[in-house]
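Schema walk-through. Below, the input block comes first and the output block second. Nothing else is stored per chain. Lengths vary across the set, and this one has 640 residues.
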Amino acid sequence: MIVIVAANFCLQSCTDDLQDEKDSIELPRLLKPLKVTFGVATLNSVELSWQAAAPSFEVEYCQAEDFAQDVTVVDGITTNKCIIDNLLEDTKYYFRVRGVSETGRPAPSLYSDIVNKSTLAEPAIENIKAVSEMKYTLDPVTVTTIVTVTWGKEGVEPESITSITFTHEDNSPITYPVSAEEAAAQQKVINTGLEVSTEYMIRLYRGTKERGSCQVTTKDGPIPTVEGESKLNYTTNPVTADVSLTWELYMVPAITTVTFTKSGEDTPSLTQPILPADLTAKAKEVTGLDAGTTYIVKLMNGDELVSQSEITTPKAPSANMRIVKPEDGDLREIVVDPSRPDTLFLVPGSYNFTSTATTGIVSKNLVLMGESPATTILKMEKNLVLQGTYDRIAFKNITFNCDAYLMQGTVNSANGQFNIGELSMVNCIVNLASGSSANSTIMTIQARTTGFSAKIGKCTFDNVITYSHSGNTQFTYVQVSASEVNMVFDAITVKNCTSTNTARGIISIGQVSEPVNINVENCTLYNINAGKNTVIYAAKSTKAKIGVKNTVLHFGNTGYKFIDYVAASATVNIENSYFFKGQTPLFNNATAPGNMNMIEYNGTPQDLFASPNVNPMATGASFKIKDADIAAKNVGDPRW
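--- output ---
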């Protein structure tokens, strides 16, 4: 019995000693954390986790990979993950983890491998814009620079912007507080403390946090200006020029004289006093200047220069021109006079041309010109008749009100033939069939006798506005009958023109010699071909070359016949040209594949033009393209 008891005692004693030995075993240091990974990252926090066993952990982080400075320690972490917050947005941080013991034994673990993570960046505010304006008053004299800053995007909740700064070069920022109401409206108007003609960097802040920026250059300050509009004075001999001066003085108290000095000279050729009435009107009429001369115009306050500008007076008619005045009578008598010079200059006013159908004959060079179609008006009760051989016939700066045709050529044994090197019309307005519903075209060529021919080399219409009586049954620019005449054209060009309200189209060539070139470029054609004919008719010209470029086409009726040509041999080239939705153009009386590069405008004339009208000269009418997408494509008559 004793032996057995002794044996049991020994077994128990050995077991306790083993436990004591085990409890007394201690690691020299904690094990190194492994597999450091990241969870969710926000604007100013990062979630971190790792694998390791320790009483607690420390996380160290900084912005330098070598942990040489500015290291932040987060300790007392008792789990294997934590969230590090109060970080800077859009910033890369480096992290490492180690295990620690509260008693210092065992020793802290080695640091984990270094890992890095960037916080998220808060998107800058969208659509920050600044618009500058300048306001001034004369009584009292004040100048105010105003900048309106707007920001944000529709449908996005406004941010709580608290201030806006304006910084110019190295100067200290000017800070403007933003109220809660302004922040909600996403707009701030600044009208104090800003200079004129200055570039500023604008920054928006929420507290100390910049939320976006833009630049603005403020408007120029009020600079005194002088402008002048000059016209010829035909009552003097030789012809001189008058100038209507206008000015804005802004903060200048007074001016005493105005001087005119010819460009390249030092001494004024004309000095005039500024009278009290001139100061009140801010304008002065000056006469007796040389025509065709560039002057430096100076407003003076005693000997001090206030403002200056450069003004060029119009050229006087040359010696080989005849100056014609309305009181000189029927223009037909002057045109058919064989002794007249080639060029007739029409002094601003209203004129009549009242020939019969056979007496208004142009048989020599004719250049008929005025100062402006707004001031030089010619009523064509009958048309000019083309006959003879000569170099040119040209019209410039005139408004024509035509009862019927402007020019007509009837080629037969009675009227003979004609051969004209060039026909041109520049900067003119033509009201066709202005007083009736008669046939009307700028130029019509007719014949009934075989064997007689006629020629016009270059036929050019540039910067011309034409419109017609609603009953007009002819074409706008050129019409050649389909009878026996063998008409010759080198080229017909219609460029930078607006044509409206025609029963037919713009060009019809019947029997013509080959080849013929027709080019239509940068034109606005509105409400044309109302009679369901064809806009460009060349069906009998097998070698015709037809080009249409940068043009807008609107039909006045159904049918939509655009170009009738001989498809097998003639050529048509269309570039950057538009028709309106639902008005698909017909080519050769059939819809051509792909509209031959014509582009459909998905809208109405009211969508495209500012104010379309069958009379483009009517008050308020405008064919300016208001559709921003089309306006940038160089389409239509550029004058609008």
